[in-house]
Amino acid sequence: MNLVIDKSLKKAMSYREYKDLVKQLVEENSTTGNEKTEALANYTKLNDRRMKRWDKTVKLSDETKDRLKSFDGKTTWLVLTESWCGDAAHVIPVLNKIADFTGNIDLKLVLRDENPELMDTFLTDGNRAIPKLIMIDNETSEIVDTFGPRPSEATSYVNRFKAMNGKLTPEFKEDLQHWYNKDKGKNIIEDVTEMLCELKPNVCQ
Asked: Gene3D superfamilies, alphabetically (predicted)?
């Protein structure tokens, strides 16, 4: 396990480097991943705009800031992603906002298709679902938790639709993007803050 993580960390990117990569791909009308299609290139363009918007608009509430101020555990957040992934474009800027605020979280990103061993170690219901956040304690190198591919409310929304319809439709995927836009990152912030509370109880005081 640790060898797989160490291998991925050696080629991991910072959030800024990831954004620069996405920007370059937009200019080249391309995308990350093994599959290169016009549709995925268009999703990359859309996600570039999404990330820029969330960087500007996502806010941490005063209550969240108070809880996060006490978080002193130094951790690495290793996130599997791809530029074409809509969920990732909504989730990762929020994770970056939290990491930046605490100052104790090192956010690193790797591409799913370039790290199959890592991805297959952290499947969701047997699927290579992204984004996938792996929380690593810097002192012990232990994996302390995971998050993703979606926040809890979006996951419930998706699961209910799948139970009724068998699979996600293009119309539902569009509705899911509207959900993210309406939520403004709040559910992601709540979920991740609760995870940090469980790791360091003093965060919740």
From this structure: Glutaredoxin
182/147 Cα distance (integer angstroms)? 21
**DSSP structural state of residue 41:** H
The domain total for the chain is 1
Order the strands of the 105-111 sheet from edge to edge: 105-111, 75-81, 132-137, 143-147
**Residue 57's domain spans which residues?**
2-204
Calpha distance 51→22 (Å, rounded): 10
Residue 85 sits in a domain whose CATH number is 3.40.30.10
Specify which residues 13 forms β-bridges with: 109
Does the bond joining 116 to the residue before it have cis omega, within 30 degrees of 0?
no
Q: Which two structure tokens, joined as six digits, stand for 155? A: 């996951």
Is the CB of residue 137 less than 8 Å from the CB of residue 73? yes
Look up residue 1 and give its amino acid: M
Nearest to 77 by CA among 17, 7, 11, 147: 147
Per-residue pLDDT of the chain (205 residues; tens, 9 = 90+): 688 999 999 999 999 999 999 999 999 999 999 999 999 999 999 999 999 999 999 999 999 999 898 888 899 999 999 999 999 999 999 999 999 999 999 999 999 999 999 999 999 999 999 999 999 999 999 999 999 999 999 999 999 999 999 999 999 999 999 999 999 999 999 999 999 888 765 556 5
